[in-house]
Amino acid sequence: MSVPNPLSIADLAVFVERFFSEDPGITRVALTGGEPMLQQRFIASWLRSAPPPVGCMLETAATVAGGLDELLPYIDTVSADIKLPSNSGERPLWHHHRQFLAKCGRAQVYLKMPVSDDTTKSRCAPARASRAKRFLGRRSTYSRSRIPKRALGRLDRRACSRC
Fold first, then answer.
1. Is the backbone of residue 82 left (phi > 0), alpha (psi -120 to 50) or beta?
2. For residue 96, how many other CB atoms are within 10 A of its CB?
């Protein structure tokens, strides 16, 4: 079957409706792929016009906060992928993560921090790594209302800022 690219909102609504009619056991929709926040206007338009009959999860790098307000009414879970600079080779994005998490409102926020064998062997000081572990590793799911503001501040100022 040939699918037009880019997809129109109407075409996307038809595809999603077909998935649900063919498999009523689908219980969630995950919005992912590349960085969905770069397509937030399209996603918000689709969710406004034809919301799926189940909950939606936003899978994101948690670095683009612009437009999040438009999506959150339709999102019940945010899966935020926090990458350590020592693993990704990219510059630290703690400030962007902090801004994003501060805007998550009442959505459940699931934080993920990929680690590797090199994580503790990198330039990241053990004390900084343990702070990040304490902040991110205590629970697997955080509600924004449960993230202390001082922890959000620690996230961009201290947690592995040099790794």
1. beta
2. 15
Spatial separation of the C-alpha atoms in residues 61 and 37, rounded to whole Å: 9
pLDDT, tens only, 25-80: 999 999 998 899 999 999 999 999 999 999 999 999 999 999 999 999 999 999 99
d(CA 117, CA 89): 15
Any long-range contacts for 42-51 (C-beta under 8 Å, 24+ apart)?
A: 42/9, 43/71, 44/70, 44/71, 44/74, 45/9, 46/9, 46/12, 46/13, 47/71, 47/74, 48/74, 49/9, 49/13, 50/9, 50/12, 50/13, 50/16, 50/17
Sketch out the chain's domains with CATH numbers: 28-47+55-157 (3.20.20.70)
Q: Which of 40, 37, 13, 56 is nearest to 97 (CA)?
A: 37
Task: For residue range 89-125, list pLDDT tens digits in order.
Answer: 888 898 999 899 999 977 899 888 877 766 654 444 4
